[in-house]
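Q: Could you fold this chain for me?
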Amino acid sequence: MEVVNENSAMLSNFEVYGLLTDIQAGRGQNKPNKHQQQLATITCETIKYLETKPCKHQSEESITEFMKELQSFNLTKAEKGQILNLCPTTAVEIQLIIEESEERLTEEQIYKLLDIIVKYNPTEADQEEDNSAEMDSSND
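A: Sure. Below is the predicted structure, expressed as structure tokens.
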């Protein structure tokens, strides 16, 4: 296999999830033919994996706002991408993602970063609470 057009951009889990669900649904890209069964399996397994990650609940708008809020932390593109994909929940996870975080960020900044992550990446439980609240209000 030969690389025809090299592209060095990183994709977020949200972008990969969107692309693969489009492929699986037959939109945008062609569905794998009978000679590409392995590709179909990889696509299906990757979608299953990504459905357990925060990217399932993200939107383009929330990601844009999230990235705007991260600008004040002077993070690299790779660090921002890892934070977006992994959605760390503890200061230790932040320190593992951000190189030399002890020198670059104060403890207060780390906790502010964690608050921003929670704000733009609700957990599955938060999503279920929102959905049940919407159902209750629509029944009234």
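A (continued): Residues 13-56 form one domain.
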